[in-house]
Amino acid sequence: MLKPTPKRPWTCPSCLRQQRRSTRRCLVTSSTNRGAAAAATSTAYDPPASKVAPGLQHDDRTLRQIFDSASVWKEFSSKTRHHYGGKNAGLFENKYLTRPEGFQDFAGVTLQKCKRIVANVLAYETTDDLKRVAKDLDRLSDLLCRVIDLSDFVRAVHPDRKVQMAATQAYAMMFEYMNVLNTTTGLNDQLKKASNIPEVWASWSEMEREVALILMKDFSKSAIDLSEKDRAAFVDMNNEVAEVGNEFVENMAAEKPLLSLTSSKLKGMDPMVVRELTRWGTVTLPTVSMPAQLALRTVEDPETRREIYMANRTSSQENLHRLETLLKRRAELAKLSGYESFAHMTLTDKMAQTPEAVTSFLDALAKDNAPQAQTELAELLEIKKADARAASNYPVELNAWDRDYYTAQLMSSLRS
């Protein structure tokens, strides 16, 4: 049986202040969380010496700070925005993306190119014309994805909120147009017509044939064989699924964003962090923050850890409603398209192919990892049983809010 680790003494605040001055390196995810910086410097061990080149260390640190601090991003971008004789090269050296409004210009220009290709494909009549269908539709798909994929990436990672919003608008515009194309019967008819002509099929390369088969599958998934009314409903549902899904991700928040606690309940936590979060004798702890994660690893009182854990994992009602709407619309979309569920619809052309295959894989993976996981949990449970403070905290089982705390205890004992 493992021996319990000794009680961690409280460190002198003045020593911690001195340490923080000399090693002020931390990952701060929110400028509003005043305790985040203190929490990041509260680790109790020195990291091993790094043999990575100093330049790489600098690049890694700069990259973290760009995403974590709006002020660092502003300073960095002001120094690096000019290229090619002082002219702004734009994001990804795209001449349109020199300012947020450029996303609309980029999407608009691409949209016109797409419409010209669509008009050409719909007008093809001769065999020679139809030989170009696969290549033209592949070009059409490429143009759409250039805007959709780029905008989707930028709206997820760019530090500037204005750029995020502009990218989101460009994404929505092109995504809706793509859904309209997927339900355009004329394109599907032209593709099938070309594929059924032996001379055309023989003239296509292996890649062109593969493109044609993929596009025909995409059309079949998009309610192409339904009535015009149902196809319009498909477009609306698909757009709503994308919009609500994005809102769900962007608005993730806890039901209780802040917890008010007395400092005595946070015994075991770094006193400097507690002091940073204390106002008028009350500790205000952001439930989704680095200080909250630190509390789960260090606070001795199990009831306090439980309160923090539950607050951290209880979503706001508004976002739960978004999730319910998203699941409902996905189910309706799948039913309209003739699929048993949204999972079946999504996986039909993927490697897994069916939800049952995914479940089988996950079950097998869980079974394979279970012995190791059970061994590690048993080790943590032994530490808990030896902890006198755990007497009133379900002493014979390891709760979710116990895992980080006793893992930290175990790691501390291994280092000593």
Automatic annotation (TrEMBL):
Residue stretches spanning the membrane: none
Keywords attached to this entry: Hydrolase, Metal-binding, Metalloprotease, Protease, Zinc
BP-aspect Gene Ontology terms: peptide metabolic process; protein processing involved in protein targeting to mitochondrion
Peptidase M3A/M3B catalytic domain sequence ranges: 297-410
Superkingdom: Eukaryota
UniProt cross-references to InterPro entries, sorted A to Z: Neurolysin/TOP_dom2 (IPR024077), Pept_M3A_M3B (IPR045090), Pept_M3A_M3B_dom (IPR001567)
GO cellular component: mitochondrion
Cofactor info, note text: Binds 1 zinc ion.
Protein name: Peptidase M3A/M3B catalytic domain-containing protein
Organism: Hortaea werneckii (Black yeast)
